[in-house]
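Re: weekly structure request thread

Next one in the queue (171 aa):
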Amino acid sequence: ERSLKRVVGVLQKVAETVAYAHERGVIHRDLKPSNVMVGSFGEAYVLDCGLAVVQGRRERSGVVGTIAYMAPEQAQGSSEHVGPRADVYSLAAILYRSVTGHPSFTGKDVPSMLYDVVYRVPTQPSVLTALPDFTFPARRDSKFSVSLRQRRMAEMWELALARTGGQTDGR
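Done, posted below.
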């Protein structure tokens, strides 16, 4: 079964696994659907930690990871700015793909895809697929400036929760 409810449940388990790694200073840097395995009892595994780094250790700069799921700071190739947020962005990109059936960005070649990841905003999900009536509420009390990209990714998470009635498998 590949229902949205199941996808959200799996991603929640993956997010918990990634949070555990982040608490220990480990950044995965290549979260994508093919690096998530679901066991026969619904357990979720995060695979392929070959690009993982320990935060704070000096790493060689450069673009590493899968472009369709990487955060803008990762696409810029500056390893000192890639931290837990990059993995969270990748989780949101996986959710975006799961809900819309499309990656956040596509391009004709690597340079154009990297440009899109850094400078463009993903297409609004409702343009790509029929979605239930849902409005992302603006936070008036926020002290932080939330970019359109962040709002779209948050919208995807809220949409997924709305479509599943706030319930996820295994919870």
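The helical segments are 4-23, 72-75, 84-100, 110-119, 125-128, 148-163. Residues 4-23 form the longest helix (20 residues).
Next request, please.
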